[in-house]
Amino acid sequence: MSEVKFKIKRYNPDKEKKSYFQDFTLSNPVSGETVLSALLRIVEEQDGSLCFRYVCRAGICGSDALFINGKRLLACQTQTKILKQPIVIEPLPGLPVIKDLVMDMDPFFEKYDAIEPYLIEPDDNIGVDEERIQSKKELDKIDLFTTCILCGACYSACPITWTSSEYLGPHAIGKAFRFYEDTRDAGGKRRLKLLDSEDSVFRCHTSFECVEACPKNIPLTEGIQSLKRSIMKYKIKKFLRIERD
Terminal CA-to-CA distance of the chain, rounded, Å? Predict the structure, then answer.
């Protein structure tokens, strides 16, 4: 393959009212060249105004998730040689576009922050300088959920986020599951109350689009369904006065 052809979606709010596609061709692609490497070459060799995000180039930061040939993929982990040409590159659907391939992630992270994505320590453990050990079995329950890189692919793929701007989204609820099931966390009831709303777990329709889009293969729908069951058990126990706030 002596050249690679691209169709890249462009948008500059200072100049255009609508987005458009621009064609690019790269000659002599290097062996194993990724979409991100190709984008960097386009900036260096052809058009320095092209905007996109990237940081680690190792599939860890999640900043370069894009809509590539109709699929949500990490640009740094996707080689150009496996893609049908022309390679069509767009920002993730469902997210506001700032410029070219750069999306406004503020709503995404605001919903993530809303679920308190950190360990809540028990009162009797605050200030105690000692390791809190987990068994392998305890870790295995949340292990996949800890690998989330907050790339936005699941959020973009979820049909509920497209119809409800208030829905927390699979990324946030998945993180909530990760902390709720963490044996070191003391915020269990607090998290269940936070998630017990029509804009949270009960809005999920289990379409599994988030699972298919996730580059880390996190079983997000499984976690959401588990939280639904936990909330219902808590509410039943509370109604029967078995459980107190």
Answer: 64
**Of the candidates 186, 116, 174, which has an alpha carbon nearest to the alpha carbon of residue 148?**
174
DSSP 8-state code for residue 3? E
Q: In 102-245, which ranges are continuous DSSP H helix?
A: 106-114, 136-142, 153-157, 159-163, 170-180, 188-195, 209-213, 220-239
* pLDDT class of 125 with cuts at 50, 70, 90: low
Task: Give the pLDDT of residue 127.
Answer: 67
Same domain, 23 and 120: no
**Token pair of 19 as six digits:** 């987005």
What local confidence, expressed as pLDDT, does residue 103 receive? 97
Q: Determine what percent of the chain falls in helix, strand and coil, rounding each to the nearest 5.
A: 40, 15, 45
Q: Please give the residue range of the domain that contains residue 87.
A: 3-103
Name the token pair of 168. 């927390």
Tell me what pLDDT residue 126 has: 65
| CATH assignment of the domain containing 222 | 1.10.1060.10
Whether 122 is in a domain gets the answer yes
Q: Are 57 and 46 in contact (CB under 8 A)?
A: no
Do 168 and 134 belong to one domain? yes
Q: What are phi and psi of 53, to 5 degrees?
A: -105, 145
Average model confidence (pLDDT) across the chain: 94
- Which residues make beta-bridge pairs with 5? 25
Residue that the structure tokens 């269990």 belong to? 188
